[in-house]
Queue: 2 jobs
Job 1
Amino acid sequence: MPCGCYSSHPYSWSQPYSVSTSSAMAYATLLTQKIDKDNSMLSIENMNVRFDTPDGQVQAVSNLSYSIKAGETLGIVGESGSGKSQSVFALMGLTADNGNVSGEALFHGENLLSMSKKQLNRIRAEKIGMIFQDPMTSLNPFMKIGKQLSEVLMVHKGMSRKQAIAESIQMLDAVRIPSPETRMNQYPHELSGGMRQRVMIAMALLCKPELLIADEPTTALDVTVQAQILTLLRELQKEFNTAILLITHDMGVVAEMCDRVLVMYGGQKMEQADTDTLFAQPAHPYTQGLLRAIPSITEDMPRLPTIPGNPPSALINHQGCPFRDRCDYRLARCQAETPKFMPLNGRQSIACHVKAQSSISLIHQSA
């Protein structure tokens, strides 16, 4: 896994931005869109999530767009408050009552954001599964594991109780839970943290969903159990050809699991790239800062580099780039003008005014 400082990829922009190269920009945009959207099972377009609060309206997610294909893993990464979890809660119809969601979330052509609660419940159970960060707040503490699992199949698959119990035992075995028959008769508090998370994975996969949303699935687990859970997810993904939308702040998990990565900050998409490209050539200053903060096993680092400053306020009164106050490369236009998300090549896109000034040369090289 790539570790340590990425200072070998500094900013050194010399070419001014030229509007005469719009055809090259258009070519790169079309190339990136083609790669992102061909055969996509889920396509998000201009998603916005806002909340009404006593202090004003909060913009949790701003104009977010991405897509995911069958069988691939897309990681959404960012620090706490970046909007990554709120974006998937909006997908699943789990936004709080004071929230407002707009945009499109097309799942096989159907807009999840305009569905009724009844339609969403059907999709959530049969087509899209979700693993939450803390199993203890997701599992019913007063119901045995077996009852919680079997009820999913009885309600959504129309199975008899006997069939549902047999299928549930089979799924517990599939997620590597020993003595599954015994576990069926236990309550959540009687299981370890790792076992509870495996139960959550089993529950999410019971109906063989096409898409699995995993929101920080290993955060509360120790390193050994975390590795086991990640290995399990990869094995199950291969077996069922399930797409995984992985929400995390852990770049090590991203390197281990993801085919592509979307970096969020301040509710906005900062960078998107295939995983190898992102780790080898991070383009956005925020992404570079995240990767510099990864501990190195080869270098003596008395202190980990940090990104100075604080995240921006989410209240809707700011202009410009959300990362501007923490960026060493900011320009005057970063203060007043929100950068557009633009392609660098067929593998990588960013929202950055600084990078825009040299993007044309990169596009010509890739075209």
Note: The two ends are 30 Å apart (CA to CA).
Job 2
Amino acid sequence: MEKVYIASIVNSQKKIFTNICEQNNLQTYTMSNESSLIEEVLEIKPDILFIQTSLLETSDDNPIEKIKENKELENLWVIIYGTRDNGMEMLPRYEGDYYVHLPYANLQMEALFRQLLNKPKLILIVCKDPQKFESLHKRLLNEKFEVIISTSGKESLDRIKGVFPDLILYDEKIKDINVVSFCETIKSTQIINHIPFVVLSDQRIAENAEQYFEVGVGDIFFHPYDSNQNIQKIISMVTPPPKGKKLKALVVDDSQAVRNVISKMFKQLGFSVATAENGYEGLVAAGKDKPDIITSDYDMPVMNGWDFCSEIKKNPGLSDIPIIMVTTRSTKIDIKKGEALGVVDYLPKPFKTEDLQKIIQEVITRAKEEKKNLLISKYVSTDALKNAGDVVEGIKERKPESKFISILFSDIVSFSTLCENHTPEWIVNLLNKFFDSIIEALQKNNAIIDKMIGDAIVARFDTGDKAADALYAVKSAWDMLKTLDELNKTSDEALQIRIGINSGEVILGNIGSEKHRLDYTMIGDNVNIAQRLESNAPKKGCLLSEATFTLISEKIRVGERQVYTVKGKKEGVAAYILRGFNE
């Protein structure tokens, strides 16, 4: 059960929030003494803090900042509440996550708890013809959303303050209030201007799109409205960040005024912000805070913007952080220099805050996409990614092909026994160290990691040169065995592996179900032979087929030719134990 602490000096307000929290099965605590507020919060360690505006405004120090200095509370959700119409403006100043306007407390709290407690999200669809959006409505219900439909813009404005939806989908064809006027009204109303707003349109007119985005429209969905892409966007829009988790921004500029403007804008977007007044201070701050995004001026004392960017890109732990250059220098040469130093975008001074805000949102979206692609690449082989991209782009059809390649199988000897004798955490840590070392040995020999199954690795060598691929496979096996010897010197428990290698024709392509999941992989008799050779290989050894040996016989040393009986083959399979390489 999550814990809530309510900081209020008004008993009636305490009662309102206590009742709402208890109705949502939250363990509730209330402030007993204003002077001991910080001590009480530090002792209780709540998940959510409700705090009255007057407690913040009358305090010499920011109590929330003091509370969040405690590592266990740095991700605390902070809800500021009061009667001020402009209370949202307090959030950046006091590191708040949400503002509750007391006249609407019950309704706002219901919306808030949908976010905090992961309850079904509420979507308002404002449309001229509900039948036209019936498929979207059904799809949203199937995705466990709650949906309200309204056919009037004016009626919707009243309903929004009555239900505080998590997302508004607005039909471009609504006549009584057009898109621009409706969105302007939403964005100018403090208590609802945080609600994401999406236009539903059946015409792709550039002028309309520009006008919509200028007034604060978050996105435009085109027909089919219930497409997987649109549904995924909706899920992303209404899914809250991890509790209390904020993206970090670093603002580097020697002008206090510019730092304040950019910092305020970042805070309004939900970032936590660090600042620095020159490149050297920025470098120290970046190393300490590891920000998600950096904005930097060019002309600064001590260390200028270019030197700062250069130092950031030299540091492996910081080099992936996107940097936006905000400066008076805007010549083509300056922009080219920025690109060379990894500057992802460039905004000349003087700038409009909405322009910088748009750039920041684009950069963060791009960075998230790159992180997602990097993560995907750890689960999917490189040629599978390329194949998927080619299919999407229409470069080639999704047809399997027959190719001559070399195949390598390896697994850990007695892995099941190892699992029985150790905890799951120990096994996972061991495997991760093992894979980190072994995969590196494979990749330096042009291996494509086809898959990893438990403790097993399946790799293929597919450059198009039969002899080269066979040699790459054998060198990989040799390097894997040597790498494992080194790894065992520092390991609690020594590992042993077996390796099998074969060369020949395989079927390579997308295997699986068109409707559910495709796996870009290899199948065929030669794949099976490689796997069977691996199971027959000696501990800490490699067994290679005669087909592989024939391709590179002059370059390697092997044991005597032996014929092995393997499962699924009537005739035996000739193979050799790898002994080394000829000079």
Note: Residues 375-380, 391-396 have pLDDT under 50 and may be disordered.
